[in-house]
Specification:
Elements lengths: L2 H10 L3 H4 L14 H11 L5 H32 L5 H11 L8 H10 L7 H8 L2 H14 L2 H9 L4 H12 L1 H16 L15 H9 L6 H33 L4
Length: about 260
């Protein structure tokens, strides 16, 4: 698991001529920070302030992740711990949606977003991220396995209303699940590049800006390696923090295989 990260960091420190050695060398021989200096120089010359790309990325990732975790948890709580007409049908639809590739749903998604007037706005990315079916599936499976109904009934008998039961009992007990969901959402939104819903340069993300730097060809191979390391930092840190919770959630939800 560590080797790809070590290789990426090693590549980012290689002079350009070392990157093109054949056979390739795993470790850098003459480390240099020139790739990072070139990257920051190119970033400073962008006609859109680079801080704008960073702000867009953090806004989309932060709001999208928070909304997804909250909405998936609320829906999962209703599906796993309450009985109502159509409950099984709804969950079957959630499971069925997991079978469809994102490529298949691109056109319907674009039509819906366009009809709602969300093209070229943050809403076009953030609001669809709220409704990812994988998060709902994970949370429901985890709640069914880890939260006994007797615990919830005891809380209700003590006078706790549903919101208090959810926030004070359910959410702390399913912490591994929503931490796992958080890392999945961060990985998906942080790495989002030139999204089809966004045309305005001022609304594009950091990954898109870095991909434009890579468009310079082989002369920017070293700069591209430095950019790849920068893009890795946030998802890797988030994964390291939540790693044990991810493993526990997958084994509990039946997705470890």
């Amino acid at each position: 698991m560590v080797l790809p990260m070590v290789y990426a960091i090693s590549n980012s420190l290689k002079p350009l001529e070392e990157i093109w050695y054949f056979p390739p060398r795993f470790f850098v021989r003459n480390p240099t920070l020139k790739n990072f200096r070139d990257l920051f120089r190119i970033m400073s010359e962008s006609w859109v302030p680079f801080s704008r790309y960073i702000f867009n990325t953090f806004l989309i990732t932060g709001v999208g992740t928070f909304g997804h975790v909250v909405l998936a948890s609320l829906c999962a709580y209703a599906l796993s711990k309450h009985d109502f007409p159509g409950k099984n049908l709804m969950f079957s639809m959630v499971v069925l949606s997991l079978m469809f590739s994102g490529v298949v749903t691109q056109i319907p998604n674009f039509i819906i977003v366009a009809k709602l007037g969300w093209i070229d706005s943050y809403k076009a990315i953030i609001i669809p991220a709220f409704g990812s079916s994988l998060g709902l599936y994970l949370m429901k499976q985890f709640m069914e396995q880890m939260i006994p109904d007797s615990v919830l009934e005891s809380a209700r008998m003590d006078g706790a209303h549903e919101w208090k039961v959810f926030w004070k009992i359910v959410m702390p007990l399913v912490k591994p699940a929503w931490l796992t969901l958080t890392i999945f959402s961060i990985q998906g939104l942080w790495g989002m590049g030139a999204n089809k819903f966004i045309q305005s340069e001022e609304l594009k993300t950091l990954n898109y800006a870095l991909s434009q730097i890579l468009a310079g060809g082989i002369a920017r191979a070293g700069t591209g390696s430095a950019a790849a390391v920068l893009m890795m930092i946030v998802p890797i840190v988030a994964f390291i923090i939540t790693q044990s919770n991810v493993i526990e959630t997958m084994s509990t939800s039946g997705m470890k295989d």
